[in-house]
Specification:
By secondary structure, the chain is an alpha+beta fold. The chain has 10 helices and 15 strands. Strands 2-3-13-10-15-8-7-4-6 form a 9-stranded mixed beta sheet. Strands 1-12-11-14-9-5 form a 6-stranded mixed beta sheet, with no helix packed on it.
Amino acid sequence: MTAPLPELTGVDRRRFEEEVRPAARPVVLRGIARDWPAVVAAGESAEAGVGYLKRFSRPAPVPAILGEPGIAGRFFYTPDLKALNFVRGQTPLDPFLDRLLRDRGHAEPYAMAIQSVPLPELLPGFAEANACALVPDGVVPRMWLGNAIRVATHYDLMENVGVVVLGRRRFTLFPPDQIANLYMGPLELTPAGTPVSLVDPDAPDLERYPRFADALRTAQSATLEPGDGIYIPFHWWHAVASLEPVNAFVNYWWNPAPAGLGNPYDVLLHALVAIAALPANQRAAYRAVFDHLVFRPDGAPAAHLPDDVKGVLGPLDPGTAARIRATLVDSLGR
């Protein structure tokens, strides 16, 4: 049994920036988009909601994924973890939407989804007519469409605000520090880019994945109705289940980190090569080094040095960043 996610109502941009985001905890934003024309149409019927989407659609094909009825809507791996249990393709939007409506009466339909397509490409004009006032200016919204599907527990390397437009959606969230209890799948092959948990949160096999019981003690969940929103902080693990035969969801991803920094994932890959196989005492030493110089729980590691000799331990300016990159390129090229 998971704990309920905290809920807020009446959140505006100021409150979101001053209270919600600094807390770095997920929260349900009830009714944040209840006045969107798309949500109003969806409140009439699935047909009306789909009809509203079609007002903005284009004939150009868009990326889509399709899974056999046997996967029961769960986009995931094949049993041997060497392939995915769905195929990728292209489809015009209107026939896809028509298929969602037509398949509502099927007990075991194909799992269908259009995922993370930028709204200006998919439905030009929709974002302007259905705007979210919480997110920073310039963030490009993305649309997710499909039937009753389930997305494995994963994380995003972004801040995330999502809004349910049509159907209902259940979110189950775990803190970033639960990574060891979630039994992460392969890094090289993932359903959508970032690693996923191998545990089905709706039917966990605790004999095979016993530490997941500890993860469940930290889990929070909520079911969102049309017009409801959710804030998911950076790197929080989340599983998502679409609960209706026809679903539409809009989300907004952004990263407030300064532009021009390196990719932390590159650091991780290099560390797997350079550090993970070292003897335990050496790994412990490097853990202390990384903690002090990179994660900095005790503050700036070079505060005791004059500014003109801090070098790479000082403030990161474009020149210093360029020198570090040049050193790395030279080292990796040897």
